[in-house]
Amino acid sequence: MEKYSNSQTYISYNIKEITFWPDDWCSLFKIHCVHKWPLNYFLEPKLPKRTRVIAFPGVPNPHDALAGRWPDRYPNKKWKKIYKYIKPTSWISNHWK
Hints:
Elements: H1 10-14, E1 26-28, H2 29-33, E2 53-55, H3 62-67, H4 92-95
Parallel strand pairs: 1-2
């Protein structure tokens, strides 16, 4: 096994060519789908047109977003609930299996 640095993953170090998906194929739910405050109280999160993959890092998870829940990870910081709100996201049920 060849050595590789901590900044490189084993796969990217050992393959000869990497082809990444186009940037607009990959979206983060919290960043690219949820509307900014205060629109998040009135508009359902959007599905960007060219998106093929949506990542849900942290919370909410897909089942939470589908139900319109943003779990409270910090119960002592109630002020975060002001902007961490989403309406139920109906389009998730069409794509998430």
